[in-house]
Write a structure and sequence with these properties.
This protein has about 250 residues and is mainly beta. The protein has 1 helix and 16 strands. It has one domain. The strands form 3 sheets. The chain has an 8-stranded antiparallel β-sheet with strand order 1-2-3-4-16-15-10-9, with no helix packed on it. A 6-stranded mixed β-sheet has the order 5-8-11-12-7-6, with no helix packed on it. Strands 13-14 form a two-stranded antiparallel ribbon. A hairpin with a 3-residue loop joins strand 3 and strand 4. It is globular and about 40 Å long. It starts with a helix and ends in a 15-residue tail after the last strand.
Length: about 250
């Protein structure tokens, strides 16, 4: 009987150690103020307007996510995915009007809980990107302008929910803007030159609109960078000009 109890205790301890090791090696831990990691992604002319004190990061085994503040009202997320030399972002599909009511990630951690205008983010424990990434955006996301260049692609618009997935369609990162406080009375207007911009309108239902977002996938060397720009102020796709995407 005592032998069975000892075996049971040893088994429980082994399971506990294994679970702790898995958690420790797959959890993203926090980092602060190491702006040097990504300051090069901003043009020299705007770097003095980047807050180098209030910048925070999440460090994973294959990725780093950092948030920056530009001119006090622009909030920039930069997510680096390393060692993806063979991945071609030009072939990365964006699937629109998808059913993304909630995340399918079962084991992960959640960040940016009620931290507007950042989206709430759920990321899968220990996720790895290998051959391809796929972006799914939900039916409530409104893309106002597609952005395409030799080494980056993306869009500008208002995002409701989106998911970054692997080649099998399994969610790795889930972005949800509906769980953070929305600015009031935003609408989309096309001017005489067919440019879209966002304006206030007291007659609109603010629950149907989120703040604008610039979404960019950028490749430099063997690394991929996911960039999100949000603000509590009105802005358009020209905000991309603060980025150094050469």
């Amino acid at each position: 009987m005592k032998k069975k109890i000892r075996v049971l205790i040893i088994g429980i301890l082994l399971l506990t150690v294994s679970a702790g090791y898995y958690f420790f090696t797959n959890f993203h831990y926090g980092e602060f103020n190491k702006y040097q990691r990504f300051i090069w992604l901003f043009k020299d002319s705007v770097q003095e307007d980047i807050d180098k004190i209030v910048c925070t990061g999440l460090i994973g085994k294959n990725d780093i996510e950092y948030t920056f503040i530009y001119k006090k009202n622009y909030f920039i997320t930069i997510w680096e995915f390393r060692d993806l030399l063979k991945l071609d972002i030009k072939k990365t599909p964006f699937y629109l009007n998808q059913n993304l009511d909630e995340s399918t990630i079962k084991f992960g951690q959640t960040e940016n809980i009620n931290v507007a205008p950042f989206p709430q983010i759920k990321l899968k424990f220990g996720f790895e990107i290998q051959n391809q990434i796929i972006l799914y955006v939900d039916k409530d996301t409104k893309i106002l302008k597609n952005i395409d260049s030799d080494n980056y692609k993306g869009f500008w618009g208002n995002i409701s929910k989106m998911a970054l997935c692997d080649e099998n369609g399994d969610q790795l990162i889930f972005f949800d803007y509906t769980l953070t406080q929305q600015p009031k009375n935003l609408k989309f207007i096309k001017d005489s030159t067919d440019n879209m911009y966002i304006s206030n309108d007291n007659n609109l239902d603010s629950k149907k609109y989120s703040e604008p977002t610039l979404f960019i996938l950028y490749k430099k060397g063997s690394n991929i960078y996911l960039i999100l720009i949000n603000s509590d102020e009105i802005f358009d796709d020209r905000i991309i000009n603060i980025l150094n995407l050469r």
